Amino acid sequence: MTLLSASYAPPGPEFMDRVSVAAWVETGLLGPECHVLLAPARPRLAESVEHYRPGLLGIARGLGLGRPDEPYRLGLGLLLIQGIASLDYGHPAATLNVPYPPPWYPIAQRQGRVHVAVGLARRELGGGLVAVHEYLAGAAQAGELLTGMTAWRRRTPLGWLRAH
Q1: Are 121 and 139 a contacting pair, CB within 8 Å?
Q2: Measured between alpha carbons, how far is 68 from 61 in angstroms, rounded to an integer?
Q3: Considering the chain, what is the average pLDDT of its residues?
């Protein structure tokens, strides 16, 4: 079982613009399932995707994610309040907002959980769900993907209420 090192601390709000977030719904064995993919955003001029790796690993650690071939993990990091979806990844003052397509939010509320994947390789935007699945397969094969599930955290962190 993968244990992410404590040296990967959850990044603060200054890191959030370096994360690309994709959310979608697809049909699973028991009906619709909500998914979220976090990957490095397009690097800034003086940075590389490798520069984003510690922050992404800190998010994965905070959500309790592991390698795709390990037993699936369940954490309590999903916040759903008044139409806002956010991931609580363990930072005391920051969460990661999830922009979502129309059916995603009510399904996440009803099921109380979403699948989360953190990819460490850069992902080109566009291409729809086919491109997302190709990215997930490639990142998993390269050992650059962490996955799990996060459940709806019914108690809202005080810091999150102040920020929103």
Answers
A1: yes
A2: 14
A3: 87
Amino acid at 38: L
> How far apart are alpha carbons 156 and 112 in whole angstroms?
14
pLDDT higher than 90, residue 103? yes
pTM for the predicted model, two decimal places: 0.88
Residue carrying the six token digits 């799990």: 148
Higher-scoring residue by pLDDT: 48, 112: 112
Kindly list the strands in the beta sheet with 145-152, ordered across the sheet, starting from the edge strand earlier in the chain: 19-28, 31-40, 113-119, 145-152, 74-81, 84-87, 96-97
Cβ proximity of 37 and 136 under 8 Å: yes
Enter the tokens of residue 69: 């071939």
Please tell me the distance from the alpha carbon of residue 8 to that of residue 62, in angstroms, as a whole number. 9
Tokens matching residue 155: 């108690």
3-class state of residue 66 by DSSP: strand
